[in-house]
Description:
Strand order of the largest sheet: 2-1-3-10-4
Number of helices: 14
Order of helices and strands: HHEHHEHEHEEEHEHEHEEHHHHH
Amino acid sequence: MSASHSRAALAGVLALALASATACGGSDGEKSANGLEQSEVTLGTMTVADTAPVQIALSKGLFKAEGLTVKTQVIQGGAAGVPLLKSGRLDLSFGNYVSLLTAGTKDPGFKPRIVADGFRSASKTHTLMVRGDSPYRTIKDLAGKKIGVNTKRNVSTMLVRAAGQPQGVTFDEDRNFVEIAPPAMEQALKSGSVDAVQAIEPFGTQMRESMGARMVADLSTGETDGLPIAGYAATEKFVKKNPKTVAAFQRALQKAQGMAAGDRGLVRSILPTYAKGIDAGVAASMSYGTYPTSVDPAALQRVADLMQRYQYVDKRIDASAFVASAP
Length: 327
């Protein structure tokens, strides 16, 4: 082979190698461009008013602006998200703090880290509802009865138990509570399969307007008024491995939380787009809590202390230990 042919062949090999390297490095180039360890995450969420900021962030491209693609998976409650986080099928999940703190305390292998606060209660955001023709008028009347909750041993059951204690009523997690997905609670009340339901907005208002359901107890008053209800968590392993990805999620969600907190009309308009069966009328008349833009360990400790009082955990836990460190 002549020298010129050798140089031409070598040039061709180098060109092919360079083209191959460029093609294979396309996704890596995109990752380095936005600086994220993982540019796509799967998030567990629920079709309740609490998660309106997630929908705001998706609809307004706030995650995309951070170089992050967020895929959502609907879960029934925080307890349902725990095994999905542990297995890696979810990268992050919305969940009530009782379920997250309980699982993190009782299972040494599960180390949830709260990356963002989600929702705090206000009057009538969590209620105990019965049928309009029900003979039950007060929470005392429900002693020994069946109450529908989204999942057992979570914030819903704790709110019911906290409301019952001052009235001398003790509810048992297994005997008195029945697990029902929030959108199915109306039918459960109608059929009589339960005597009452612990309704999360917007479903409490929906049941009142559509079937004449009646509130027998506001579960967001007194010591549970303004209580941190739920937030967004990942495993400690995920947070340590993907600090930039977590920070991007936090920035986008913080913006969305602020938008939800400052513009109730925005929340009202987006609710019917993702909450099954919720129309504009329900969204306009329902009760709303607050959407914090940061995690307050002192406020979260209120939840942990109530958990100890109602024996969800054996001893006092330090809620701040579950909060993800700043990236």
